[in-house]
Design a protein that fits this description.
136 residues; globular; two-stranded antiparallel ribbon; 5 helices
């Protein structure tokens, strides 16, 4: 949470670098929002910080993507296979489990304060937020 707050306040922070195959953080790197008035924090655990970001006045919007589950499964599998993250059998088994769990994940994210929306709607809203901020 402190990294998000630092990015919002200062426009730069050291962020963690994760190795998916190793299931852990392996390094940090400097990240700069390059003067943008907004940045997007995304990922399966992003909804975990929605309430705290809202409390601190850092939140412009919180969205949980609503996507066709089959398409998500195929994109995830193609990515993981191309990156050789784990053995193909493990990736398929994991992908099917995530496919089945996806409705519950979406409900949980909504319970944590994210709004379910399709990608185009999220992009439209972010564009609207950017239009309302002067670029420096």
């Amino acid at each position: 949470m402190e990294i998000i707050a630092r990015l919002a306040r200062e426009g730069r922070a050291d962020v963690p670098v994760y190795a998916i195959g190793a299931d852990r953080r392996v390094a940090t790197r400097s990240f700069d929002v390059a003067g943008s008035p907004l940045f997007v924090a995304e990922g399966i655990f992003a909804a975990e910080i929605v309430e705290e970001c809202r409390r601190r006045g850092l939140l412009a919007g919180a969205y949980a993507l609503r996507r066709p589950r089959g398409a998500t499964f195929l994109r995830r599998l193609a990515r993981d296979l191309s990156e050789q993250r784990k053995a193909p059998r493990v990736l398929i088994r994991r992908g099917v489990a995530l496919l089945r769990a996806e409705p519950a994940v979406l409900r949980r994210q909504m319970g944590l304060g994210a709004e379910a929306a399709r990608a185009r709607e999220v992009l439209r809203r972010v564009a609207g937020l950017l239009a309302g901020h002067p670029h420096g």
